[in-house]
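#lab-general

N.A. 3:47 PM
ok so I finally got the sequence cleaned up, no stray characters, all 249 residues accounted for. can someone with queue access submit it? mine expired

B.Y. 3:52 PM
send it over

N.A. 3:53 PM
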Amino acid sequence: MTRPARRTIRPFLPAAAVIGALGLAACGGEEPPSPTSPAVTGNEASETSPESLDKPEQQQVDAETAKAALPTVEDMPDDGWLVDISTFSDDPITYDPAVCADVELGSQEARTFDDEHRTVDEAARFSKSLGNYDNLITATYVESFDAPYPTAFFDAAGEHVTDCGTYTWTKGGSSSTRHVQAISVPQLGDRSFGLRLTSEGTDAYTDRLYVRSGHNLITVMMLSTDEHYDGQRMTQYAQGILDELSTAG
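B.Y. 4:20 PM
back already:
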C-alpha cells in the first residue's frame, strides 16, 4: 500500500442509526458472485503438519507497527472521508443459536483466546456521509497475539456459515435478526474468510474480510447501503496491511 503523506483530519461523528444496526462494520462494486471457493481459504497443509511461521507478517508485532500498517484517510477511494470517532459499549454479545458466534469469530473459545493472548488491537475507521443520516464506513483492524491465531476458528466459521444464514444477535439488551452469507475472497495470508451481514429493519450491508497471518488477525469491514460488495477494495486494504507488516522492523 502506497503511504501518502499524512495530513490532519477533522474528526467526524456519524449518525448512530446506520452504525448501530449492524454494530460497526462496503461500498458498491460488481454483482456479488456466488462463492466458488471454500468460505475459508488458505494453506490446508498446516492442519496436518507443523506450521512454519517464518515470514515477517506472521510475527507478533507491537502497537506502533500495527498502527503504521493500517490505511489512512488518504487511502480512501474518493473525497469526503473523515476519521470516524464512534464509540461502542463493552457489553457482551450473545448469539442464538449460540454456534452462530463462530461466523463472526466470536465464540467463547475465540473470546477466551483474545483475553489470554491478545497484546495489540489497533484500528483505523473512516466515515463518509451520504445525507439523511446514512454513512459509508470503512474500518480496518490489526490484532496481534503472543501465540499463533488458531486456524480452528476459521474452520468453524466456514463450517457454520451456511447453517447460520439467520440468527439473533443481542448486545446491551438490544436484539436484531441477522442474515449472513459467505462471499468469495482470494487466498490471503495463511487463511482468509469473507462474509456479508444484513440486519432486518435496515437497508445497510456489512461486508467483512478476515485474514489470519501467523500471530496476527487482520479484519476489513465495510458498511454501505449498496447491494453489491466491493471485494477488490477489501482485498486491497488487507493485502496492503500484510505488505506493510512484511517490511516492518
